[in-house]
């Protein structure tokens, strides 16, 4: 994760405690559908987080760290769709896949505190959802802006 | 303590929702990653409510809900749908299914429990 130690996350008021030199919250456990991950919260260096909101912020911040590879994969998928659109080879299946990918990003980025990412992903989803020829230049622009809006 | 079943195919959404409901509201949460798995879990666990994604592969949220309605053992468990669809036509369609409510992605993890409690009429 890039970003400063007090990376104020838009919308949710998240303050990143994991980059303050005292170590991030630790995530252990599975994402196999049989229960939530087990998380160890370190707090902000002044003792463990005690308020439910503080605990939730730290847990979600830690979950973001673990989700970065997945988010990156999704952005890479959108890049591939962009390249295909630029050369006029965006197949219906690829278009549908990119639309689903954008939908998933739209549904999750704001949850992690990146509402601008949700807005851009939603624009991409709607562009691909509409019938007709995709404006490859605009699609590329949106995907680049989406990537730039995230601390990957 | 309230017991909630979360059904969502996306790991990150499922985990953030679970952690949110557990850490903010103190509810007990179980999870399932598909509609079919969710139906089995609902029978086994008899949760107080179900929070379920709309768009899932194989069996989507509305189809899963209709399946649940056919089973008397779980038909009365209130279901709240979770969707990233923002268009009004989709919202009306989901509301017309007979679910307890519809919440929208991306949700705010710090207020999800409050939204869900309000939707379900829990004090």
Count of runs of 4 or more consecutive helical residues of chain B: 5
Number of helices of chain A: 4
Strand content of chain B: 15-25%
Quaternary class: heterodimer
Shape summary of chain B: globular
Mean pLDDT of chain B: 93
Order of helices and strands of chain A: EEEEHHHH
Going by helix content, strand content and strand pairing, the class of chain B is: alpha/beta
Rg of chain A (CA only): 18 Å
Helix/strand-derived category of chain A reads: mainly alpha
Q: Quick one: which chains have the greatest interface?
A: A-B, 33 and 31 residues
Give a structural overview.
The complex is a heterodimer of chains A (152) and B (123). With 152 residues, chain A is mainly α. In chain A, 53% of the residues lie in helices and 7% in strands. A two-stranded antiparallel sheet of chain A has the order 1-2. In chain A, strands 3-4 form a two-stranded antiparallel ribbon. In chain A, strand 1 and strand 2 form a beta hairpin. In chain A, helix 1 packs antiparallel against helix 4, helix 2 runs antiparallel to helix 3 and helix 3 packs antiparallel against helix 4. The N terminus of chain A is likely disordered. In chain B, 42% of the residues lie in helices and 20% in strands. The two termini of chain B are 13 Å apart. The mean pLDDT of chain B is 93. The interface between A and B is medium-sized, with 33 and 31 residues.
């Amino acid at each position: 994760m890039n970003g400063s130690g007090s990376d104020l996350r838009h919308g949710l008021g998240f303050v990143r405690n994991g980059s303050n030199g005292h170590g991030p919250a630790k995530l252990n456990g599975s994402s196999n559908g049989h229960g939530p991950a087990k998380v160890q919260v370190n707090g902000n260096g002044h003792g463990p987080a005690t308020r439910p909101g503080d605990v939730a912020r730290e847990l979600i911040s830690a979950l973001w760290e673990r989700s970065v590879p997945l988010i990156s994969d999704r952005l890479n998928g959108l890049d591939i769709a962009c390249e295909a659109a630029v050369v006029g080879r965006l197949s219906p299946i690829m278009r549908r896949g990119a639309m689903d990918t954008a939908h998933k990003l739209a549904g999750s980025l704001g949850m992690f505190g990146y509402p601008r990412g949700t807005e851009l992903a939603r624009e991409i989803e709607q562009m691909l959802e509409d019938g007709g020829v995709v404006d490859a230049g605009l699609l590329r622009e949106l995907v680049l802006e989406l990537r730039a809006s995230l601390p990957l | 303590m309230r017991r909630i079943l979360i059904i969502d195919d996306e790991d990150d959404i499922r985990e953030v929702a679970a952690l949110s409901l557990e850490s903010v509201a103190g509810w007990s949460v179980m999870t399932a990653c598909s509609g079919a798995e969710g139906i089995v879990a609902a029978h086994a666990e008899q949760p107080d409510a179900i929070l379920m994604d709309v768009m899932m592969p194989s069996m989507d949220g509305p189809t899963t809900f209709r399946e649940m309605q056919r089973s008397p053992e779980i038909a009365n468990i209130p279901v709240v749908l979770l969707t990233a669809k923002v268009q009004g036509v989709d919202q009306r369609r989901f509301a017309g299914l007979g679910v307890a409510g519809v919440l929208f992605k991306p949700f705010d993890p710090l207020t999800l429990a409050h939204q869900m409690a309000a939707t379900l009429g829990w004090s």
